[in-house]
């Protein structure tokens, strides 16, 4: 094999790999730009719940074909009242591909699914004293690929941060109970290029746990 031929093969393999990498992840997609679509994918009770609304010329559409596909399979959503479509898929895929067809009008897009929450601080295996937090700010941190936004709630503390930074600091005085619920919701959002203005698709992973608090405020 000549050096020139070997170089050609290496360059072709690199180009093929680069092209293939563009087939995954968030993509605003395409379409006829006439359908107004709002799509939501939510993680709940070990499954992905799909809720898609479809309008054409300002009117709800009852006859659309709506599918969502992930690495776990493809789901044909059921028509609901007022142009809404719904479905469920067990598990949580890496991404979700949406397709909507209404006669000659169509739309497609793909959104990257937020990673499941893995809490790294505070330690769930131990109780913590908020009075001992530096500057009376309790660090809450999680692992995984960062999302477009994250919402954190516990007791009277509730905030949304864009983008997700993998951590947030909560005033120690917000920890008032021996056991206190902590909610962390991570969301990715994409504007749908093939839809009417304002069309969007989002995917949200919702996490809830209990924190053990020593000497609460």
Structure in words:
- It is a single chain.
- The protein is mostly beta strands and 217 residues long.
- The longest helix has 19 residues, at 3-21.
- It has one helix at 3-21, and strands at residues 27-31, 35-44, 47-56, 59-60, 65-70, 73-76, 78-80, 84-90, 95-102, 105-112, 118-121, 137-143, 149-154, 157-161, 167-171, 179-191, 200-212.
- The strands form three sheets. Strands 2, 3, 4, 7, 8, 13, 14, 16 and 17 form a nine-stranded mixed β-sheet that branches. The chain has a five-stranded antiparallel β-sheet with strand order 1-10-9-5-6, with no helix packed on it. A three-stranded antiparallel β-sheet has the order 11-12-15, with no helix packed on it.
- It is built from one helix and 17 strands.
Termini gap:
75 Å
User: Structural class of the helices, strands and pairings?
Assistant: mainly beta
| Number of structural domains | 2
Stretches where pLDDT is under 50 for at least 5 consecutive residues are 1-23
CATH architecture annotation of the largest domain: Sandwich
Radius of gyration: 22 Å
- CATH domain class name of the largest domain: Mainly Beta
Main sheet makeup: 9 strands, mixed
Which percent range describes the beta-strand content? over 45%
